[in-house]
Amino acid sequence: MPFANFKVPAGTLAPEQKEKIIHRTTELYVEIFGERARATTMVLVEEVADGGWGIGNQVLTLAALQGGGGGGPDGSGGDV
Q1: Each residue of 48-69: pLDDT tens digit?
Q2: How many helices (H) does the chain have, and how many strands (E)?
Q3: Of residues 2, 9, 15, 73, which has the active-site annotation?
């Protein structure tokens, strides 16, 4: 069974966008494995709580991703 797991920041995707991810991912697996993969492809879109992930030693928040402030402890995006 093909499986894809997408982890995204909570609140960043509308239901229609999640649906698009599911449909396009399923179609990709069908393209690779053939039509037999359609019925067994599982796509999971998980929302990660704000501040529950980071990149490059920086905790990321929704505000930082939307350009409203950095992910660092002082809001600057850098270490303090």
Answers
A1: 999 898 889 988 888 887 886 5
A2: 2, 4
A3: 2
